[in-house]
Structure formats: C-alpha cells, structure tokens
Amino acid sequence: MEEDIDTRKINNSFLRDHSYATEEHFRLASFSLPSSLLHWSKPPPSRTWTVVMTYQQDYLSPCLYPLSALSDIISTVEFNHTGELLATGDKGGRVVIFQREQESKNQVHRRGEYNVYSTFQSHEPEFDYLKSLEIEEKINKIRWLPQQNAAYFLLSTNDKTVKLWKVSERDKRPEGYNLKDEEGRLRDPATITTLRVPVLRPMDLMVEATPRRVFANAHTYHINSISVNSDYETYMSADDLRINLWNFEITNQSFNIVDIKPANMEELTEVITAAEFHPHHCNTFVYSSSKGTIRLCDMRASALCDRHTKFFEEPEDPSNRSFFSEIISSISDVKFSHSGRYIMTRDYLTVKVWDLNMENRPIETYQVHDYLRSKLCSLYENDCIFDKFECVWNGSDSVIMTGSYNNFFRMFDRNTKRDVTLEASRENSKPRAILKPRKVCVGGKRRKDEISVDSLDFSKKILHTAWHPSENIIAVAATNNLYIFQDKVN
C-alpha cells in the first residue's frame, strides 16, 4: 500500500496543476482587509471591510488573444519590492502588470487601487521533437528584481525556460536622423548634403516590455520555483529533481547545486516541490520535498549541496496515520520570513512555521481546513488532494495567509493565535460592499451565516496569493479573477 501511495504522489508531482475555469474574464476588485488581525494588542479602531472598486479585464481582447477561457486562469501573483507594481501570470503565457494609483488628497480611499500598467506575452507553447513532448506556455512563477533605475526587471518562467524582462516607459521619440528619413528608411548617401542634430519630441506615454535574457535548456523536468539571490547577481531555478544556479549575465550555462535524481528511477522516493534563497544570506537556501521535509543548504560547504546543513522534519503521530498521510504531508510551498529567522511551509491541511534553530518540530502549526480530513477519499478521486496551495507573510511577519476551497482564504495572527476566514466572490465585488468573515459548519445544526462542509465548491480554490511588502494590501487569485483587499480606517 505504501508503494502505491508513493507512486501516485510522485507521478502527480510531475503533472501540471489541475485547475478549472469558472469565469469568463479576469476581475480585479479592491477590498478592505480586517486590520484588527495586525493590532490585537490594543483595541482596534473603527474599521469597515468594503470594496473600493471592481475592474473588468476587457483589455484581454479576443482579437489580440484568441485563446480559451482556460488560458485566462491566473497561475502566479507577485508584488514588486515597493508594492507599487503587481504582476500576474496566467496559463496562456501572458504577464499582466498593475500599477498602484497615486494617492490623492481628495480621494484618499483610492490608495489601494491598481490599474493595468502593461500586458505582454511572455511565453509561447513549444514542442520538444526529441522527446515528443508539448511544453505549455503557462507562467509558473514571477519574481521581481529590486529597482535600480527608471526601468523594472522581472523573471518569469514556464516549465522549461526562464526569461528576464525589462519593463520601461517611453514618452519621447527621436527625430531628425541623418541617414534615415522620417519613416525609418535608409537615405541615399548622395542626397545627404547637410548635417542635422537629432532632437527628442514628446509623445504619448508607452510602456515597453522587452526580453533581455533567455535562460533555457537546463531543466529536464518541470520548473516549480525560481528565487533571486540577495546578491542580485544570481538566481536559482528548481525542478522536480534538480536545482540550478544562474548568473544574470550568463544564459548558456548554469551550475547544478542540488541533484536528487537516483541512478535508477525506480528507486525514486521523493521530489523537490519548492525552493527559496535566504533573504539576507546569499549562501543559504532551502528546498522542500514531497515527503514533507525541508533541507537548509549552505553553498560555502561544497559545490554540490547534496548534503544539507539542517534537516527539518516533524515526526508523524501514529494515531493520525492513514492511507493519505504521505500525500497530504507533501509541502507545496516554502517561504522565508522577511527577517530570515523563520521558515513557513504549506502542506495540504496545515501551515507550519519553523525556527531555523530548531529542526525536530515546527514552533507553530495552523489548521487551514481540518474539516476536510473526513473528505480525503473523495478529494483523492477528483485529484484535488494534489492541489498546491501557496502561503505568504505580511510585511512584519506577524500574520500569515493561505488559500482554501470555495474561494476561501485564511489569515492567522501569530501573536494572538486568532484566525479569520474570508471569501473572494463576485457577489461581494460591488463598490463599497461589506466583506464578512465566513465559517464552515462541520456537523450538527448549521447557523444562518455558516456554510456546510458538504456544500463547498472544490472547483473554486485560492491557490495563489501575495501580500504587499509594507502595507495591509493583499492580492488573491481565484481561477481567472484577481481580487485586491485592503484595510480601511473610517
């Protein structure tokens, strides 16, 4: 039985994520976030949770992008380091960047609104003729680089190829070429009798996205993670069995720092599920596995980090052992805290916080949807048990957030151990609408404001979330809808 579990689990880790399209367009809404989560130490001020504005993403024109609704499903969400930009990637290979509106003295309530800044096609579908394998264009991850000048840089990756994009603005155009006419055609040198000095003329603001680097042909399996190093000169990309280290200036070669592929693939027992660099120490990184373990590696110890520096694993409670134990213990996401002291991991039912100085067990464990433990059999049959939920920290590492089903997402306050369940739904997307906490009824009599666990819609799921680096603004992706929530003081 255990061999069957391992085989099913590992096989599914090599497959694409299972998602279902339930809407026809992206939708961006800006809500308020219960800031009382972050201020339990003192009486919270009077606050309301309201919708600021709803965006209909009609810029995805069918004429420009004749793709199915399935390609519009959001596959990753990421704020940049200042929080002024928000990037989303979808299954159609597109990257959409939103820019935060400048705060107005007359319209202070608009401080959390994001408008479309740029949209471009990052990846195209490909076909590997040597392996007879189709390579999807789906954007698996987006990571921003710190802004060094007027331009923005971000990394985007699909299953095989990582691209470095430059996003810049242009509001002037050069005129008065000597060797070209005004339409850009080369002039006959015999007709050039005078020398002109080119000048810059004002023009409508145009945002350009250009690929500066393409990092390809280094991964045999599907890339599941990319992470920018704190030295900002290198980054790593991780697939199911290997982790590669890249230099931003070198595209034709990478350095393999982790390789867990066995000599005989029949002996494969676990795969890499996520990896991330330490936020401050450029030599340190962690990666998680499908066995529910986390390995901390130090690149100073050896060139190939096949021997970990620290190994984090929680002993399993024999009383909770079941047919699905190893599947639900697989870690789908791992994140360092902003301080670098803690690691947060997400498995199917829980979020755990680990102290880097304590390897034998997590210091905090939060139940995300423990009421689904009795539903694991049906979740296994419809493949939902293999869904990969992400988790994020708030700017001060005091609150963590992760997604669930029925478009629910959970927030846990680490100081008070209080939690709240919120719902991202189209019904609550009207401007200034009030967002109320939700509760799930497990058994017995159901109250009016509760929802039965048997009524949950498992095709609606919050897999991808992001938190503003310094403010209480979050982005939540629900299939092909994007919601932005913010706290609001009355």
TrEMBL record:
**GO CC term (a single one):** protein phosphatase type 2A complex
Task: Report the InterPro entries cross-referenced here.
Answer: PP2A_PR55, PP2A_PR55_CS, WD40/YVTN_repeat-like_dom_sf, WD40_repeat_dom_sf, WD40_rpt
Q: Which GO terms describe its molecular function?
A: protein phosphatase regulator activity
Answer yes or no on keyword Ribonucleoprotein: no
Keyword terms: Repeat, WD repeat
The record, for SUPFAM superfamilies, names: WD40 repeat-like (SSF50978)
Q: Which SMART domains match?
A: WD40
Does this entry carry the keyword Repeat? yes
Q: Note the PANTHER family from the entry.
A: PROTEIN PHOSPHATASE PP2A REGULATORY SUBUNIT B (PTHR11871)
| Similarity comment: family membership | Belongs to the phosphatase 2A regulatory subunit B family.
Identify this protein by name: Serine/threonine-protein phosphatase 2A 55 kDa regulatory subunit B
Q: What is the species of this protein?
A: Bos taurus
Primary gene name: PPP2R2B
